Amino acid sequence: VFGWPGALYAMITIFVDGTTSDYVLEGPSRIRTATIITNQPDAVAAVLMHQLGRGVTAWQGQGMYTHQERSILFVTVSRPQVSDLRRMVFSVDPDAFIVIGQGHTAYGEGFQMPGP
After folding, report:
1. What CATH number should be reported for the domain holding residue 53?
2. Among 33, 57, 97, 102, who pairs with 37 as Cys (CB 3.0-4.6 Å)?
3. Which residues of the chain have pLDDT under 50?
């Protein structure tokens, strides 16, 4: 009925409206979470802890396609640290797999401290 220009304008408006609403209601997202699957968990964790200054949590997983045991690392960083994290991980393990997610708020050391 309205054609492609109208449909494109509507999609842009919906995106901007949703993004603005989220920002106003919840505030800016300043943190990112990284899930890292690597064959070199100790070396990757050491680089992230010592050079990036972030704590790392590890757990064991299994690749369902290969059925091989894999180490999975989880780390929370500030938004500006994402490129450093990516560079550091791939410098240690070029075969690593990284998923970067957007977190809303992190409480604890290195981030926002919980209130009373």
Report:
1. 3.30.70.120
2. 97
3. none
